[in-house]
Amino acid sequence: MKSYYVYILTTKNNKMLYVGITNDLERRVLEHKRKLIYGYTEKYNLNKLVYYEEFSDVNQAIAGEKRIKGWTRFKKDKLINQFNDEWNDLAYTLR
Fold it and tell me: Of 27, 49, 73, 84, which is most buried by a Cβ count within 10 Å?
């Protein structure tokens, strides 16, 4: 079964957030860490994985990404705090 992920990256000091979607979370986070994804995440060094959610249906994942992107920063912070209250980099737990 194929999996799809909605994920949130932040900076080292948790100042900025990026919400994305992928079908291979470990690969995608590694691409962000190596600055292979040009644009916003590369420019602002968003490479710390603080939240992710798995879906079995791509349409549900897309809807989840759009939903979270529409939230305020406060609501996104609350979601991250419920999932990862210390804002640790979860990339190292994916293996």
Answer: 49
* Predicted local confidence at residue 94, as pLDDT: 86
Averaged pLDDT, 55-81: 98
9 contacts 41 by C-beta, under 8 angstroms: yes
**Other residues' Cβ atoms within 10 Å of the Cβ of residue 89:** 16
Report yes or no: 33 and 91 within 8 Å, Cβ to Cβ: yes
How many separate domains does the chain show?
1
Whole-model pTM? 0.96
Identify the CA nearest to 68 among candidates 7, 22, 4: 7
CATH of the domain at 62: 3.40.1440
Query: Are 53 and 76 within 8 A, CB to CB?
Result: no
The domain of 45 spans: 4-93
